Amino acid sequence: MTNFYQQLQTPAVPDLPNPQDRYDRLTVAQTNGALRTFFLKLTNALQSIASPRGGRFLNNPYGAFQDTTDQTATANTATVMTFNTTDFSNGVSVVSGSKLTVAQAGIYNLQFSAQFDNTDTQEHDVSIWLRQDASGAGTDIAGSAGLVGVPSSHGGISGHLIVGWNYFVTLNTNDFVEIWWSTPNTAVTIQAYPTGTSPTRPSTVSVVATMTFVSNLSA
Protein backbone atom coordinates (compact mmCIF):
# COMPACT_ATOMS: atom_id res chain seq x y z
CA MET A 1 0.00 0.00 0.00
CA THR A 2 1.31 3.47 -0.88
CA ASN A 3 2.39 5.42 2.19
CA PHE A 4 1.27 8.96 1.27
CA TYR A 5 2.33 10.49 4.59
CA GLN A 6 5.81 8.94 4.68
CA GLN A 7 5.13 7.49 8.11
CA LEU A 8 6.97 4.55 9.59
CA GLN A 9 4.87 1.51 10.33
CA THR A 10 5.12 0.44 13.98
CA PRO A 11 6.12 -3.27 14.10
CA ALA A 12 3.36 -5.39 15.62
CA VAL A 13 4.28 -7.35 18.74
CA PRO A 14 4.83 -10.96 17.61
CA ASP A 15 2.22 -13.55 18.54
CA LEU A 16 4.50 -16.20 20.03
CA PRO A 17 3.27 -19.78 20.52
CA ASN A 18 2.82 -21.11 24.04
CA PRO A 19 5.79 -23.13 25.36
CA GLN A 20 5.49 -26.91 25.29
CA ASP A 21 6.05 -29.21 28.26
CA ARG A 22 8.84 -30.83 26.29
CA TYR A 23 11.32 -29.49 23.79
CA ASP A 24 9.75 -29.21 20.37
CA ARG A 25 11.96 -28.19 17.48
CA LEU A 26 9.08 -26.84 15.37
CA THR A 27 7.83 -24.60 18.22
CA VAL A 28 11.32 -23.18 18.77
CA ALA A 29 11.75 -22.56 15.05
CA GLN A 30 8.40 -20.74 14.88
CA THR A 31 9.30 -18.62 17.91
CA ASN A 32 12.72 -17.71 16.50
CA GLY A 33 11.18 -16.85 13.13
CA ALA A 34 8.58 -14.53 14.69
CA LEU A 35 11.24 -12.79 16.79
CA ARG A 36 13.59 -12.47 13.81
CA THR A 37 10.86 -10.80 11.74
CA PHE A 38 9.95 -8.42 14.59
CA PHE A 39 13.54 -7.31 15.23
CA LEU A 40 14.19 -6.93 11.49
CA LYS A 41 11.23 -4.53 11.18
CA LEU A 42 12.33 -2.69 14.33
CA THR A 43 15.88 -2.34 13.01
CA ASN A 44 14.63 -1.02 9.68
CA ALA A 45 12.49 1.58 11.46
CA LEU A 46 15.41 2.77 13.61
CA GLN A 47 17.70 2.94 10.59
CA SER A 48 15.14 5.08 8.76
CA ILE A 49 15.01 7.56 11.66
CA ALA A 50 18.82 7.69 11.88
CA SER A 51 19.22 8.26 8.13
CA PRO A 52 20.23 11.69 6.72
CA ARG A 53 16.55 12.57 6.10
CA GLY A 54 15.11 10.65 9.03
CA GLY A 55 13.68 13.80 10.59
CA ARG A 56 10.69 13.56 8.24
CA PHE A 57 9.41 10.68 10.39
CA LEU A 58 9.53 12.67 13.65
CA ASN A 59 6.48 14.50 14.99
CA ASN A 60 7.66 17.36 17.19
CA PRO A 61 5.46 20.05 18.79
CA TYR A 62 5.09 23.33 16.89
CA GLY A 63 2.74 26.24 16.37
CA ALA A 64 2.41 29.27 14.08
CA PHE A 65 0.08 32.18 14.85
CA GLN A 66 -0.73 35.66 13.56
CA ASP A 67 -2.97 38.63 14.19
CA THR A 68 -4.86 40.47 11.45
CA THR A 69 -5.97 43.48 13.55
CA ASP A 70 -4.34 46.74 14.62
CA GLN A 71 -3.00 46.72 18.19
CA THR A 72 -2.73 49.81 20.39
CA ALA A 73 -1.37 50.60 23.84
CA THR A 74 -1.92 53.21 26.52
CA ALA A 75 1.23 55.33 26.96
CA ASN A 76 3.80 53.84 29.35
CA THR A 77 1.61 50.80 30.04
CA ALA A 78 2.58 47.15 29.67
CA THR A 79 0.42 45.66 26.90
CA VAL A 80 0.32 42.07 25.67
CA MET A 81 0.49 41.21 21.96
CA THR A 82 -2.46 39.11 20.85
CA PHE A 83 -3.25 36.59 18.10
CA ASN A 84 -6.53 35.86 16.34
CA THR A 85 -5.43 33.27 13.78
CA THR A 86 -3.79 29.84 14.13
CA ASP A 87 -1.89 28.78 11.02
CA PHE A 88 -0.38 25.56 12.36
CA SER A 89 -0.76 23.80 15.70
CA ASN A 90 0.66 20.55 17.04
CA GLY A 91 1.01 20.59 20.82
CA VAL A 92 1.33 24.41 20.89
CA SER A 93 -1.78 26.60 21.05
CA VAL A 94 -2.95 30.12 21.87
CA VAL A 95 -4.96 30.42 25.09
CA SER A 96 -6.92 33.58 25.97
CA GLY A 97 -5.70 35.25 22.81
CA SER A 98 -2.11 35.80 23.96
CA LYS A 99 -0.74 32.81 25.89
CA LEU A 100 1.43 30.58 23.66
CA THR A 101 0.86 27.36 25.60
CA VAL A 102 2.69 24.02 25.26
CA ALA A 103 1.30 20.56 25.97
CA GLN A 104 4.78 19.03 26.24
CA ALA A 105 7.57 20.21 28.56
CA GLY A 106 10.79 21.18 26.83
CA ILE A 107 13.00 23.88 25.39
CA TYR A 108 11.27 25.86 22.63
CA ASN A 109 12.41 28.35 20.02
CA LEU A 110 10.05 31.34 20.03
CA GLN A 111 10.28 33.65 17.02
CA PHE A 112 8.10 36.68 16.42
CA SER A 113 7.79 39.79 14.30
CA ALA A 114 5.64 42.90 14.80
CA GLN A 115 4.87 45.68 12.32
CA PHE A 116 5.09 49.05 14.11
CA ASP A 117 3.62 52.31 12.81
CA ASN A 118 4.30 55.83 14.08
CA THR A 119 2.04 58.73 13.02
CA ASP A 120 3.86 61.35 15.12
CA THR A 121 6.53 63.71 13.73
CA GLN A 122 8.88 62.55 16.51
CA GLU A 123 10.63 59.20 16.77
CA HIS A 124 9.45 57.08 19.71
CA ASP A 125 10.89 54.07 21.49
CA VAL A 126 9.19 50.73 21.99
CA SER A 127 10.08 48.16 24.64
CA ILE A 128 9.38 44.46 23.97
CA TRP A 129 9.83 41.59 26.42
CA LEU A 130 8.62 38.12 27.37
CA ARG A 131 6.43 37.02 30.24
CA GLN A 132 6.30 33.36 31.27
CA ASP A 133 3.92 31.23 33.32
CA ALA A 134 5.00 30.65 36.90
CA SER A 135 2.53 28.77 39.12
CA GLY A 136 -0.37 30.12 37.12
CA ALA A 137 0.77 33.77 37.02
CA GLY A 138 2.85 35.48 34.36
CA THR A 139 6.37 36.53 35.40
CA ASP A 140 8.65 38.72 33.29
CA ILE A 141 11.69 36.83 31.96
CA ALA A 142 14.86 38.58 33.10
CA GLY A 143 17.05 39.79 30.24
CA SER A 144 14.35 39.35 27.58
CA ALA A 145 13.57 43.04 27.04
CA GLY A 146 14.68 44.93 23.97
CA LEU A 147 14.37 48.61 23.02
CA VAL A 148 13.84 49.91 19.47
CA GLY A 149 13.10 53.32 17.98
CA VAL A 150 10.19 53.66 15.55
CA PRO A 151 10.93 56.34 12.90
CA SER A 152 8.82 59.49 12.79
CA SER A 153 6.30 60.24 10.07
CA HIS A 154 7.69 61.99 7.00
CA GLY A 155 6.11 63.53 3.93
CA GLY A 156 2.65 62.69 5.25
CA ILE A 157 3.57 59.00 5.54
CA SER A 158 3.80 57.17 8.87
CA GLY A 159 7.13 55.88 10.07
CA HIS A 160 7.38 52.09 9.85
CA LEU A 161 9.54 49.47 11.52
CA ILE A 162 9.23 45.69 11.57
CA VAL A 163 10.84 44.04 14.59
CA GLY A 164 11.73 40.34 14.67
CA TRP A 165 13.61 38.41 17.35
CA ASN A 166 13.90 34.86 18.57
CA TYR A 167 14.46 33.29 21.99
CA PHE A 168 14.98 29.87 23.55
CA VAL A 169 12.56 29.39 26.46
CA THR A 170 12.22 26.52 28.92
CA LEU A 171 8.61 25.54 29.58
CA ASN A 172 6.91 22.88 31.68
CA THR A 173 3.76 21.06 30.59
CA ASN A 174 0.87 23.53 30.13
CA ASP A 175 3.17 26.52 30.66
CA PHE A 176 2.76 29.60 28.48
CA VAL A 177 4.86 32.48 27.24
CA GLU A 178 3.56 35.90 26.18
CA ILE A 179 5.05 38.83 24.22
CA TRP A 180 4.57 42.22 25.87
CA TRP A 181 5.30 45.77 24.71
CA SER A 182 5.04 49.39 25.79
CA THR A 183 5.50 52.82 24.24
CA PRO A 184 5.60 56.32 25.73
CA ASN A 185 3.35 57.69 22.96
CA THR A 186 0.00 56.44 21.67
CA ALA A 187 0.95 57.48 18.13
CA VAL A 188 2.92 54.22 17.99
CA THR A 189 0.78 51.20 17.15
CA ILE A 190 1.17 47.71 15.75
CA GLN A 191 -0.55 47.76 12.38
CA ALA A 192 -2.02 45.34 9.86
CA TYR A 193 -2.10 46.57 6.27
CA PRO A 194 -4.34 45.50 3.36
CA THR A 195 -3.18 44.16 0.01
CA GLY A 196 -0.99 46.69 -1.76
CA THR A 197 -0.99 47.95 -5.34
CA SER A 198 1.62 49.31 -7.78
CA PRO A 199 2.98 46.70 -7.52
CA THR A 200 0.41 44.20 -6.29
CA ARG A 201 1.62 42.66 -3.04
CA PRO A 202 0.06 40.64 -0.21
CA SER A 203 -1.45 42.01 2.97
CA THR A 204 0.58 42.54 6.15
CA VAL A 205 -0.43 41.08 9.50
CA SER A 206 0.35 42.99 12.68
CA VAL A 207 2.05 40.20 14.66
CA VAL A 208 3.45 36.78 13.73
CA ALA A 209 4.83 34.19 16.17
CA THR A 210 6.10 30.64 15.82
CA MET A 211 7.03 28.12 18.53
CA THR A 212 9.07 25.02 17.68
CA PHE A 213 10.27 22.23 19.95
CA VAL A 214 14.05 22.12 20.35
CA SER A 215 14.77 19.56 23.07
CA ASN A 216 13.37 17.85 26.12
CA LEU A 217 14.33 19.23 29.53
CA SER A 218 17.72 18.09 30.81
CA ALA A 219 17.82 16.19 34.09
Form type: elongated
Which oligomeric form is depicted? single chain
Number of helices: 1
What is the gyration radius calculated from CA atoms? 26 Å
> Termini distance?
42 Å
Overall SS class:
mainly beta
Task: Estimate the strand proportion.
Answer: 35-45%
Q: List how many beta strands DSSP finds.
A: 13
Averaging pLDDT over every residue, what do you get? 90
- Major β-sheet, in short? 7 strands, antiparallel
Helix content: 10-25%
Low confidence ranges = none
Q: What series of H and E elements makes up the topology?
A: HEEEEEEEEEEEEE
Describe this structure in words.
By secondary structure, the protein is mainly beta. Helix content is 11%, strand content 40%. It has one helix spanning 25-49; strands at residues 62-67, 79-80, 85-90, 92-95, 99-102, 106-118, 124-134, 137-140, 146-150, 159-171, 176-182, 188-190, 207-215. The strands form three sheets. Strands 2, 4, 5, 7, 8, 9 and 11 form a seven-stranded antiparallel beta sheet that branches. The protein starts with 24 loop residues before the first helix and ends with a strand. The relative contact order is 0.21. The mean pLDDT is 90.
Secondary structure: elements and pairs:
Layout lengths: L24 H25 L12 E6 L11 E2 L4 E6 L1 E4 L3 E4 L3 E13 L5 E11 L2 E4 L5 E5 L8 E13 L4 E7 L5 E3 L16 E9 L4
Antiparallel strand pairs: 1-3, 2-11, 4-5, 5-11, 6-10, 6-12, 6-13, 7-8, 7-9, 7-11
Relevant terms:
single chain; 219 residues; 7-stranded antiparallel beta sheet; mainly beta; 13 strands; 11% helix; 4-stranded antiparallel beta sheet
